[in-house]
Specification:
Structural class: alpha+beta
Oligomer: single chain
CATH class: Alpha Beta
Number of strands: 6
Shape: rod-shaped
Helix content: 25-40%
Distance between the termini: 68 Å
CATH topology: Bactericidal permeability-increasing protein, domain 1
Radius of gyration: 33 Å
Amino acid sequence: MESAVSEKEGSASYTYWVREVTQDAAPLPVPRKLTSEDLSNQSQPATLGSVWNRAGTWEEKNVNKWASDRIKELLISVGSLEFSGGRAEIAEVSKCVGDAFLVTVRNKKRVGYTYELTLRVKGEWQVGEEKKKVKGDIDIPEFSFGDLDDLQIEVRLSEEKDLLHQDKLRISKDLTLFLEPVREKLLQFEQELKDR
């Protein structure tokens, strides 16, 4: 059996090992030095992420500062809402805690974020015969990328001792109407994050 293998290796029909150039073979390449023009004409495939990551492997970029500032800016721009018995506005974003990031994986961009917010609101409501100034907070316990359809808010009124329970309930119900404008602004934030 060993002799059969060696016969096959030595035969001329087994051309893989043949290193002689034949007449019909293509000429061997001749090395030449690249010029600056050759280098400038060389096109690089478009890659996402950093210059060092041409292969498009995993790369994560933290965008917390931009995201927190942008969320605050968008939510303050909601303005005031009019209700049947009063009006209110978002005075400030008192808590904006979370993470936002851009990830490049296999040369595809993905985004993600998780945040918790507290919005300080103030307004005036007609209670009985007089207008009363009311302050409170709207808490958004947690929201993340792709989660905004299920966004929930919790309303907490400041301790208003001269308000009846039914007035507090009415004012709290009115403040839940901030849900839609807040959701719209957060959807805008999500789109801007995707476009970065």
